[in-house]
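All the exercises in this workshop are built on plain-text protein records. An example says more than a description, so a record of this kind follows:
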Amino acid sequence: MPQEPTRPRSLAGYLDALSRAVFEGGISWKVVEAKWGDIREAFHGFDPHWVAALTPKQIDRLAHDPKVIRNRPKIEGTAENARTLLDLDGVHHGFRRYLRSFADFDSIATDLRKRFRFIGPSGAYHFLWQVGEPVPDYQDWRAAR
């Protein structure tokens, strides 16, 4: 995990970290890291309202843009994840409150995997670590799987 954990200051920061975990699934983090600036720009800084409102035509454009990772299902999943993030933010009066509503790492990781597309066990761990939420020691977590 190359970047340092950072507590997001906005929903865009959470969507950025979540989307990075999505795009890193099945691909080298180095490839994602090299393109992340362009991906962030293409997704308008991961403004969740903008991403949630992506039209099929806009998704087509992103899926053909050589500056981004052109995986249409992951682009569609990012738009769906933005809608889920906005819903959870509204229901819990803050996305961080949603994250803090769980008793432990395993229960929040399970819920993240259920609610968000393309988030598996490693993606949930990486996302929570990246946004500064408590996670178990990586070596211990990895050994238990």
Observations:
- The domain at 11-143 is CATH 1.10.340.30 (Endonuclease III; domain 1).
- The CA atoms of residues 20 and 32 lie 8 Å apart.
